[in-house]
Amino acid sequence: MVLTGVTSKAIRKGGAELPLAPGTFRVYNMRFCPWAERAMLYVSAKGIEAEVINLNVTDKPEWYFSKHYQGKAPAVEHDGKVVIESGFIPEYLDDAFPESRILPSDPYEKIQQKLLTDRLTAVAHAVPSLFAIMRDKSLKDEKQVKVFEVLKMAEDLLTDDFYAGSKPGYPDYLTFPFFEKIWWATGLDGVVDLPTDGFPGVEKYPKLTKWFEEMIKSDVVQAVTQSREHGAEFMNAYATHGELNYDLGL
């Protein structure tokens, strides 16, 4: 697995589009975006040799709108084709690179994993509650309840070592980024009553705690993730409408 450009600085408005060599697979990424991280994790898990272009999605380069009509990340470019949206990219990658398929080929099992992933999007919907607390700490008691509820749901849905079974798969890679964002928030004072070490807490969420530990230390995740400290700093700036440093930590 070779991912180049993971730590490259973000291209912004006025920045030139880098030439794409024939046969090169490219990922357009935003380092702190959980939706973009879904695509990055899937590329990493499949072992695709890829060039990563990091973007400033506040001050977007003009040429990028020819790749994504809204200028959002992620997008992937391969053999002259551009595919957008984190919900579609993984399935495209499995079809384009079937030798490293992650989703099951069996139609029934494939649908079951996609349905499970859909249920786990509740974790993504809990992240805005953390943003609300970052803006107004008096909302903590009210808003963090939503986070605890989705973590309990996720704990109950985890019936094996991983959501895909005995090893990580489609639901694990597509939902991990949102658990990670909750973990990042634990490093900020007064945001959520969850432990940073041993997240989200073995007493209430024993299966989820083991799952998160295995995921965060895996080579697939380590190849693309950001540090918790930098992630928390970026999250807080985003939530409080501060200046966003897309090159934080580089």
Automatic annotation (TrEMBL):
| UniProt GO cellular component terms | cytoplasm
Xref: InterPro entries? Glutathione-S-Trfase_C-like (IPR010987), Glutathione-S-Trfase_C_sf (IPR036282), Glutathione_S-Trfase (IPR040079), Glutathione_S-Trfase_N (IPR004045), GST_C (IPR004046), GST_omega (IPR005442), GST_Omega/HSP26 (IPR050983), Thioredoxin-like_sf (IPR036249)
Q: Which Gene3D superfamilies match?
A: 1.20.1050.10, Glutaredoxin
Single GO MF annotation: methylarsonate reductase activity
> EC number(s) of the enzyme?
1.20.4.2, 1.8.5.1, 2.5.1.18
Q: Which CDD domains match?
A: GST_N_Omega
Q: Which GO terms describe its biological process?
A: detoxification of inorganic compound; glutathione metabolic process; response to superoxide
Question: What residue stretches are annotated with the GST N-terminal domain?
Answer: 21-101
Q: For this protein, what reaction is catalysed?
A: L-dehydroascorbate + 2 glutathione = glutathione disulfide + L-ascorbate; methylarsonate + 2 glutathione + H(+) = methylarsonous acid + glutathione disulfide + H2O; RX + glutathione = an S-substituted glutathione + a halide anion + H(+)
Q: Which residues form the GST C-terminal domain?
A: 106-234
Q: Which keywords annotate this record?
A: Oxidoreductase, Transferase
Is-annotated flag, keyword tRNA processing?
no
State the family it belongs to.
Answer: Belongs to the GST superfamily. Omega family.
Instruction: Tell me the protein's name.
Output: Glutathione-dependent dehydroascorbate reductase
